[in-house]
Design brief:
Blueprint lengths: L3 E2 L18 E5 L4 H9 L3 E2 L8 E3 L4 E4 L8 H8 L9 E5 L3 H9 L12 H12 L3 E8 L2 E11 L2 E9 L4 H15 L4 E5 L3 H5 L3 E3 L1 H11 L16
Parallel strand pairs: 1-2, 9-10
Antiparallel strand pairs: 2-4, 3-4, 5-10, 5-11, 6-7, 7-8, 8-9
């Protein structure tokens, strides 16, 4: 059994999270900025599908990526050094220029008849965090069109990755590479990837015990946050 939260009830201790399904901690509550910030500060995130109540998770182990450990293929590295260009297209990396559009693109079904956990309520909640400077998008624009990107939450020197999408080859990886390189310069300790997937593992992410994750998180979220303006020479 997991607790049902009212709008003022705090989250239970992470030790109450279920082993199966891994990390399910509580249900209910709301997606106010205050609730979301408190959740992320305590290693908790919302994830639920259509027809389900609002569910909160803190899996053990936790999938994380150290920004400096992102694996970049030889071909992608060459493209990054070439300004992202491929076949003479114009590539532009932007930050927070189309946050809501990125969320809607991430929400698009990945396969026929597929659903999404990024519903209108989630879009509204994270867009408000973006307005407060706590959620960010990194976008790859090709020939003036949004071709790929990602979004997540940043607290202190901790980045919580939420979702990414691509409409062109390597577009999401280009955005992730720029994010990881900039976070390394800013001395961010971790990118939270939440759950283990083969794709994340191929990029250099790995699992660590939840206790280790929480020890690092408690330090990182209390660091002074940077100004979210990317350097121009990340891959020169």
């Amino acid at each position: 059994m997991i607790p049902w939260l009212d709008h003022k009830q705090p989250f239970p201790p992470l030790t109450r999270a279920l082993a199966e399904p891994n990390g399910l901690l509580a249900a209910g509550g709301d997606l106010t900025p205050e609730r979301l910030i408190n959740a992320y500060q305590n290693g908790i995130f919302p994830w639920y599908s259509a027809g389900q109540p609002l569910l909160w998770w803190s899996p053990d182990p936790r999938m994380v990526l150290v920004p400096a450990e992102l694996k970049i293929s030889r071909s992608l590295g060459k493209r990054l050094r070439n300004g992202g260009k491929n076949n003479e297209c114009n590539v532009d990396i932007r930050v927070d220029s189309a946050f809501e559009a990125v969320m809607h693109a991430c929400a698009a079904p990945r396969e026929a008849h597929g659903g999404t956990w990024i519903n209108n309520e989630m879009v509204a909640a994270y867009t408000e965090l973006n307005r407060r400077g706590l959620a960010h998008s990194v976008e790859t624009w090709i020939d003036g069109k949004l071709a790929g990107g990602l979004y997540g939450v940043a607290l202190g020197r901790m980045f919580y990755g939420e979702s990414m999408f691509t409409r062109a080859t390597d577009a999401s990886k280009i955005a992730l590479a720029h994010l990881a390189r900039q976070l390394t310069r800013w001395q961010f300790g971790l990118i939270d990837c939440q759950m283990n997937t083969a794709h994340l593992a191929s990029l250099g992410a790995r699992e660590i015990p939840r206790a280790d994750f929480m020890r690092q998180l408690k330090v990182l979220v209390n660091c002074e946050p940077p100004s979210w303006q990317f350097d121009n020479d990340l891959f020169e």
